[in-house]
Amino acid sequence: MSIGFHPYAWTLWLAAGMTAALLTRNPFYLIILLLATGFVFAALKRRAEQDPAGSGTGPMAWDAVVRLALFVWGFTILFNALTVHVGEHILFTLPASWPIIGGPITLEAAIYGFITGLNFVTLILIFAIYGSALGAQTILRMIPGFAYQTGVAISIAISFVPQTLIAWSDIREAQRLRGHRVKGLRDFLPLFVSLLSYGLDRAIQLAESMDARGFGGRPLPATRRETWLIRGGAIAGLFLLLIGLAAKSYYRAASWPGLIMLAAGAALLGFSLWHSGRRTRRSRYRRWRWRPRDTALAAGSGLLLAAVILLTWFMPKALFYYPYPPYPLLPDFNPFLSLIFILPLLPALLLPPAAP
Amino acid sequence: MITYDHFTYRYPDTPEPVLRDLTLDIPEGAFVLVMGPSGAGKSTFLRTLNGLAPHFYGGVAGGKILVGGRNPVEQSPRGMADLVGMVFQDPESSFVVDVVEDELAFAMENFGLPQELMRKRVEEALDQLKIAHLRRRPVSLLSGGEKQRVAIAAALTLQPDILVLDEPTSQLDPQAAEEVLLALRQLNEDLGLTILLSEHRLERVVHYVDYILCWPGGGQPPLFGEPADILRQTPLTPPLIALAKALGWEPMPLTIKQGRRFARALKDQLRPAPLPEPPAPNGHPPAIRIDNLWHSYPNGVEALRGVSLAVYAGEFVALMGRNGSGKTTLLKHLVGLLKPGRGKVQVLGMDASRTPTEEITRAVAYLPQHPGRLLFTERVADELAFSRRAHDLPSDPEADRALLRRLGIAHLWDRHPHDLSVGEQQRLALAAVLVTGPQVILLDEPTRGLDYVQKQELAAILRELRDQGKAILMATHDVELAAAATDRVALMAEGEIVVIGPSRRIMSESLVFASQVNKLFRDPRYLTPEDVIRALP
Amino acid sequence: MRRLSYANLILILASALGAAAFLSPFFGPPPQQSQMNAMAHSGDAMLMLTLVSLLALAAIAAGVQSNEMNAKTLAVLGALAAVGAILRFIPGPGGFSGVFFLPIMAGYAFGAQFGFLAGLVTLLASAFLTGGVGPWLPYQMFAAGWVGAIAGLIPHVRPGTRWEMIILAGVGLLLGLFYGLVMNLWFWPFVFQPQQAAMYWQPGDGPLQIVRAYALFYVVTSFVWDAWRGIGNAALILIFGAPVLRLLRRYQKRFHFAYVENQATSKEFPQPSLRESATP
């Protein structure tokens, strides 16, 4: 299940949107980004309502996502405005004797909270869109070979949740039949233990069925050399990452040696992971089709990703904004730059109509 | 094909081995029925065929075992997957992915087969099991019979030589069970697949299996041989065979068709008692009284449409009908788990829609479909104490022990309820709801997973309770149990009671709900083997 | 002392890397660049740390896989995570969350490695369900994994007694606080509040100053919140701990078996009294 686009195209869209939302502090660009993702969110929601069976996650709590986003936004604004008493534009003043929140409440602090909230809200929307467009099963199917087993454990957990909820009401019913009333926390004991034991029983049954159908395949017999390559690569990679991280953090002035070590460590680890993933013979039944609209989405997302990373690297001030003095209260706005933040809108424009 | 040589297996925590010194040889292409009382080791034996036992159950295994030239204990289930396909009792908990097609491909993906081959085999399996129309459906939305056929198809895509099925029909209604068993018969005939099947409803399969492997239970070694030979030696037989054995019919008839010949010859010699008059209402108000009951589920399905029913003290009534005809919904109303949309439900004078379930169940015992769900504690004895405590009754271990003794499970007093067999769990659950001394007993499919002997014991217990003046209402698919024990039968369809009347009349007028003996004689005076034997001159 | 397995070595190294990612903003002398530049790079520093911790998690996943994890372990992990994820929805005061109860119990019963995975998978599954997926997730996975792993490291004192549960409840209380303490770190170094110097970290602070500032921040903003989580853990362990532990140990027995091919020489079985061949 993947709504509208190839799962890899969606994943690139996710990466681009997430990076943009994380690296941008300029509220104008962030608002454009939020509007663009908001449109995609609305388009998917409309489609899910038309065709409930076609949605990846099934009935998704669309409104709950919006409520969560608004709550987070309100909270960050309030928290920041109440705890940071800095700025020239004072809205009102709380008695100084109140701990922490006492003092002037400023416009600058509220704006800072507003922007932080904007970052979060955009991220929440982007991930909600991704989750509902692909569904957990498809996302897990993209997990590469080396992490396949962990992916299976997660996929089991997710598919067990609705079953566990049904079991919960069954068990509750059974207990009422036995005359058991739940008055305090302790009365949940038989309920909870039954639920867990039911879950574990089911897990063993599922595992039996998986093993009986050859789960895990037959790993290709690894030569000694291969084992050393994989294990050595992983261990050396982790060491390099560790040292690189320390070096980069300690020598802030010259961060490139650290960066090189990080990159080398990542490459070594990646090689080891890739190699160990290839050792299990697994094939894939599902065929995902790559269509022209996937190319368009991938290109647009790639452009956004590249632009944001390059800007952050070479023109850090372009996407940056800081409301507190001595910086100006009004953020910069570059109309050309703002255009790239419209790119995440692409799925809403290219989304094919739901099949009748 | 399959060879056991002095093979022994013991679970952790139990002193005695389940499989003791087993020596056995099963030829290629055989269709083998595995039978025996529940708890005798059928499941365990089937699971040793691909190594699930001991790999998933721990314990100790010993001796030699060869399945298709491999040793499953050493190979592990994973290494046996391309040789032995396995289908379990509850298909739902064996599904790994969400869509039918992907479920079929799962085993092949694990073996890294190329995509073209996978596509071809998925198509073949879909056709073999006649489920091509379900290919894109989520498995969770399928009916029970469809799910089980998907599970079989999924076990076949690796093209194993052996297919093992552990009670695949015990969760299905008779129609769906028939579909599954027919599909198996075809696989055996068309592909020469070796099939080992454990099944309680022998009457559906005995006539086309090649061999029967029967575990007598109690640590006895299994019997293996031609169906007729084995059936002569075991008490676990369907009514037709039981009658044939009692009357010495030879060659032993395995189907109604074969039995008719003997029945025709016998019929004129029988001197049956006249049909008993249905007992007149004794003037007391009914224990259960349902007036014009309607119920719709939140998803809009009308589950009950104007049902009226009265059940009197000292009466045993069966509710029969397809899955989804409203039997369970009706029973749940009687203890207040569901509230009526319209209509009135009264139990022992209580208004079931106003009285809390916890209070009703003090006087009304309800045994739900999965009795295992009813058990919460870590010790058999604690189950009964739990019920007493919940209903604010004083603890009384002596009475508890007496109740368990009557149900034949007193020796399990200290065991963990989860370690019991299905039949034992079922009786323990019954004990747990009977401990309050209820006047009304409600049962939902109480014979699932029970063998013939256990069914007869259950029927005897229920008749005894009925004779003590309890009112019993039982939803069931089990024609033989209804024939053997009930006074009246109500047939339900689409949320309505289509017909209700004395069991003998209803069950001999129907084709689907006729018992085996009744099908032989087509006479309301003969429903059970006992009816016939009593009428012998 | 058992030999250190490859999977455990990877787990330890990756945990160290995760810890370094949590703490890295605190190393180091004051920045030479303008403060504005430092702040402009806070976003990409966060992104980089997220990537590094993702890599560390990937290494753990691959390390465990090489350990021949079987379907049984995975399915039990999945079932625990499913129930754990549902426990997340139990309402409670402050930072109370039922999510940690099962990872703690599973870690205690099955060991640190399983505990780490139980925490990680539980958190990930519940994030998928609640839509709480985001850049904070790798940190949460690490923090929850550590909670399970630490529970797996504490010694089993007087198994089966009341004391065992009381000790475990104490550990649960501390782990509840620990999770909050760790999780705050994913954003705290990046919240530049030069004006609230006492509560926030300034580039160039010495270790002592950092700890003092963080302690103040923690006490003010999150201690009460996290205390509820700790109390919740302890309460859940005291009420449900003993039966849940018994249940988990029942399943543990099924993880091992013995096979004796020539049973005549074995004392595992009583000598069979019946020797009857059942060949047709």
Structural features, described:
- Chain A is mostly helical and about 350 residues long.
- Chain A has one domain (about 5-180, about 190-215, about 225-280, about 290-350).
- Chain A is built from eleven helices and two strands.
- Chain A has helices spanning about 5-25, 25-50, 60-85, 105-140, 150-175, 190-210, 225-250, 255-275, 290-315, 335-340, 345-350; strands at about 90-95, 105.
- Chain A is globular, with a radius of gyration of 26 Å.
- Chain A starts with 6 loop residues before the first helix and ends in a 6-residue tail after the last helix.
- Among the domains of chain B are: about 1-235, 3-Layer(aba) Sandwich (Rossmann fold); about 375-435, no CATH class.
- Chain B is about 35% helix and about 20% strand.
- Chain B is built from 20 helices and 19 strands.
- In chain B, a hairpin with a 2-residue loop joins strand 13 and strand 14 (about 350).
- In chain B, helix 4 (about 100-110) packs across helix 5 and helix 13 packs parallel to helix 15.
- Chain C is an all-alpha fold and about 280 residues long.
- In chain C, helix 4 (about 70-85) packs across helix 6, helix 7 (about 135-155) packs antiparallel against helix 8 and helix 8 (about 160-185) packs across helix 9.
- The longest helix of chain C has about 45 residues, at about 205-250.
- Chains in contact: A-B, A-C, B-C.
- Chains A and C meet through helix 1, helix 3, helix 4, helix 5 and helix 6 of A and helix 1, helix 2, helix 3, helix 4 and helix 6 of C.
Task: Name its key features.
heterotrimer, A: 356 residues, mainly alpha, two-stranded antiparallel sheet, 11 helices, 2 strands, C: mainly alpha, Arp2/3 complex 21 kDa subunit ARPC3, 1% strand, disordered C terminus
Question: Secondary-structure map with pairings?
Answer:
The complex is a heterotrimer of chains A (about 350), B (about 525) and C (about 280).
Chain A (H helix, E strand, L loop, with lengths): L6 H17 L3 H24 L11 H22 L6 E5 L8 E4 H35 L6 H30 L11 H24 L11 H27 L5 H22 L14 H23 L20 H6 L5 H5 L6
Chain B lengths: L1 E9 L8 E8 L4 E5 L6 H7 L3 H4 L3 E9 L4 H9 L3 E4 L12 H11 L4 H14 L15 H13 L5 E5 L7 H18 L2 E5 L12 E4 L8 E3 L1 H7 L5 H9 L8 H12 L20 E9 L5 E10 L4 E5 L6 H8 L7 E6 L2 E2 L5 H7 E4 L12 H11 L6 H10 L15 H13 L5 E5 L7 H16 L3 E5 L3 H7 L2 E6 L2 E7 H7 L6 H6 L7 H6 L3
Parallel strand pairs in B: 3-7, 3-8, 5-6, 6-7, 12-17, 12-18, 15-16, 16-17
Antiparallel strand pairs in B: 1-2, 1-4, 8-9, 10-11, 10-13, 13-14, 18-19
Helix pairs in contact in B: 4-5, 4-6, 5-6, 6-7, 13-15
Chain C lengths: L5 H18 L11 H6 L1 H25 L4 H17 L13 H10 L1 H19 L6 H17 L8 H23 L22 H46 L4 E4 L20
